[in-house]
Each structure stands twice: as structure tokens, then as C-alpha cells.
Amino acid sequence: MLFITGTDTSVGKTYFSCLLLRHLRANSRQAVGFKPICCGDRDDAVQLTQASDDALTVNQCNPIWMRYPAAPYTSSIIEERFIDLREIRFQWELLRAQFPSIIVEGAGGWLVPVHRDYSMADLARELALPVVLVAVNRLGVLNHTLLTLESIRSMSLTCAGVVLNDGPLPREESDTVSLTNRSVLEDLLRGTGVPVLGELNCHDSTLPDEIARKLTVTF
């Protein structure tokens, strides 16, 4: 089981989670996706459900759906609707009783607020799962990754690794920053116990072997 977070919103959490789910199920693992909160459309939950081979419904995958596309706390204010964490906890326990492998995908970035005094990071801590951090491979990723990892460690959680995502467009060969981000990040993380699991690109239809191999111990 893993909790998938990102350095920001729209960094590829769902893309990675779906690749991982398909890899696990192709290797006879009864794995399903869990998206506790969706804000805006429900595409993430639909994709996770499909990647789970429809072993659960969209409502089971996503117990809290806020219609306004913003941080959960902001959406709850705009919609004048309280986000009841008991619904998330109830569905989580039901899934845990049925499936041995669950990939939990957070909403937005690591510290996105759910309530005024409760964030997605607090949910990850409550579920007590290893965390995989997805980051877009672009200028700024070093700072964003290091800040997020510092927060993960401050909550006494284990980070199982960092996945760099090139994003929806092919990387330019002349983009020196993107070409060097991985090696610099590996250097900066040396001795921390947090590996760079590998890189994703827009052409990946299956989980890269390198990432699959490094994550095997987690399952």
C-alpha cells in the first residue's frame, strides 16, 4: 500500500497511480485505487477505477466529491459543505478488508488543506502509509521536492521514493535543467534513504521497469 502525493497539483499523480495499478494487477495483485477527495471533475477517480479493472465503483474509489475545482477546504467554503472525514475512514476500512494492495492518491499537493486544521498530509499520517512523491521535471523541482520531503520526514512518515514526470509534452533535448534534474536530485538525496525511483514520460503506457523493480519491496 502507498500514498501518492505531489509537489503540486497536476504533476502526474493519477498518471503514475494508474500505471502502478495496471502493473500490479498484471502481476496478479488484487490492487485498487482510492481517491479520498476529488475537487472539480471526477476524472481522477474514473481513471483509477478503470485501472483497477472496475473491481470497485467510482463512489467506492472516491467517497468525497467536491464540485468546485479548488483545494478541498476552499471548495467546502464555497459550497457551504462540511467534508466529513468519517466517510473517508469508513470507506478506507471497507477497502482494507477486501483488497491487499491499495494505492491512495491525495488531492493536490502535500499540504493542501482539507479543513482549517487538517491537510492531506494529516490524512497520509493517519493512514500510516509509505509515501511516493511525484514531481514534474522542470525548473524549480529541486526546491519543491526538498521542501516536500522535509515536511514528510517532519511527520515521521517514510518516503518510498521520488518519481520525476516529464509532463504531457516530449522533453526538449536542449533543456539542460530537465536533463540534469535527476542526477542533481540523486546527489542531494544521497544518504537520506529516499531514492529517485525513476522517470516517466508522455509515451509511457506501462510502468517503467526501473520504477517497478525499486517498488517491489513495498509490496
Can I get a quick summary?
The protein is of the alpha/beta class and 219 residues long. The chain has helices spanning 13-26, 43-51, 58-61, 72-79, 85-98, 120-127, 141-154, 176-189, 209-215, and strands at residues 2-6, 31-34, 37-39, 64-66, 101-105, 113-115, 118-119, 131-136, 159-165, 196-200.
Rounded Rg: 17 Å
Global shape: globular
CATH topology: Rossmann fold
Report the strand count: 10
Helix-strand pattern: EHEEHHEHHEEEHEHEHEH
Q: How many structural units, i.e. domains?
A: 1
Give the termini distance in whole angstroms: 7 Å
Largest β-sheet summary: 6 strands, parallel
Number of DSSP helices?
9
- Can you tell me the CATH class? Alpha Beta
Protein architecture, described:
The protein has a single domain, classed as Rossmann fold. The chain is built from nine helices and ten strands.
Question: What topology emerges from the helices and strands here?
Answer:
Blueprint: E1 2-6, H1 13-26, E2 31-34, E3 37-39, H2 43-51, H3 58-61, E4 64-66, H4 72-79, H5 85-98, E5 101-105, E6 113-115, E7 118-119, H6 120-127, E8 131-136, H7 141-154, E9 159-165, H8 176-189, E10 196-200, H9 209-215
Parallel strand pairs: 1-5, 1-8, 2-5, 3-4, 8-9, 9-10
Antiparallel strand pairs: 6-7
